[in-house]
Amino acid sequence: MSLAERMAKSDRPDRLAEVTGRVQSALVEGLGPKLYDTSRSDSEMQDLVHKRLRELLDNEEVVLSVQDKAQILRQIGDSVLGLGPLEAFIRDPEISEVMVNNAETIYVERGGKLFWTGAKFVDNDQLRRTIDKIVARVGRRIDESSPYVDARLPDGSRVNAIIPPLAIDGPALTIRKFAADPYVAEDLVSFGTITEPAVQFLKGCVFGRINILVSGGTGAGKTTSLNVLSSFLPEDERIVTIEDAAELRLQQPHIVRLEARPPNIEGKGEVSIRDLVRNALRMRPDRIVVGEVRGAEALDMLQAMNTGHDGSISTIHANSPRDVLSRLETMTLMAGMDLTIRAVREQIAAAINVVVHQARLRDGTRRVTHITEVVGMEGETITLQDIFLFDFHAGVDEEGKSLGQLKPSGLRPHFLDKLQDRGISVPHNLFVPW
Question: Which domain holds residue 40?
Answer without folding.
Answer: 1-81
